[in-house]
Specification:
Layout: H1 3-7, H2 11-29, H3 38-62, H4 66-89, H5 94-114, H6 120-142, H7 145-175
Helix pairs in contact: 2-3, 2-4, 2-7, 3-4, 5-6, 6-7
């Protein structure tokens, strides 16, 4: 293994992909972005949410980071699969979408359990992301606009926490010390 492989940290790239895409999508859920902005959200989900997280995950797996590699690869594939559902198939039934989101919520809850000994930002990201998936699942089953708006607020907070964690990791690495707490 080269020195570069030993020191590379793909986490910030994955967190940027997660944070930016989640914030943008959740701005749609709360009504800040309207229907005409949805193509932009899909493009972001494919390129950044899917692409950046997938690259980050594969890089993590390559350097032996099983958790980070698995998490970023799977969430990158989540965004790609969601885009396939929406673009190719025009969506899914309420029950199917509710179950799809519920399964992702359960997976995310297990990831939250895995990070209980990790930094505070990771705990917040995974807890709020699990809540987001469960709320979106409830919305898919019920069609509740209020639940969707709450999910949007939770998702914006989750994405912003992920984006902050990415920036903190980058700033701390550049400064060679803990400048921003995580």
């Amino acid at each position: 293994m080269s020195d570069t492989q030993k020191t590379v940290n793909p986490g910030p790239l994955g967190l940027i992909g997660f944070g930016m895409t989640t914030i943008l999508l959740c701005l749609f859920y709360v009504g800040v972005i309207k229907e005409d902005g949805f193509p932009m959200i899909l493009a972001m989900a494919i390129a950044i949410g899917g692409g950046a997280q997938f690259v980050s995950g594969i890089t993590g797996l390559k350097i032996g980071d099983t958790f980070g590699g698995t998490v970023f690869t799977s969430y990158g594939l989540f965004y790609w699969s969601l885009c396939i559902i929406l673009i190719k198939f025009g969506g899914a039934s309420e029950t199917a979408m509710g179950l799809y989101l519920l399964i992702w919520g359960i997976y995310t809850l297990f990831n939250f359990i895995a990070v209980l000994k990790a930094d505070t930002a990771s705990k917040i990201v995974f807890f709020t992301l699990a809540a987001l998936f469960f709320l979106l699942s409830i919305n898919a089953f019920t069609g509740s606009e209020i639940v969707l708006k709450i999910a949007g607020v939770v998702g914006i907070f989750s994405g912003a926490t992920g984006l902050y964690a990415a920036m903190a990791q980058m700033v701390n690495a550049v400064h060679g010390k803990k400048t921003l707490p995580i």
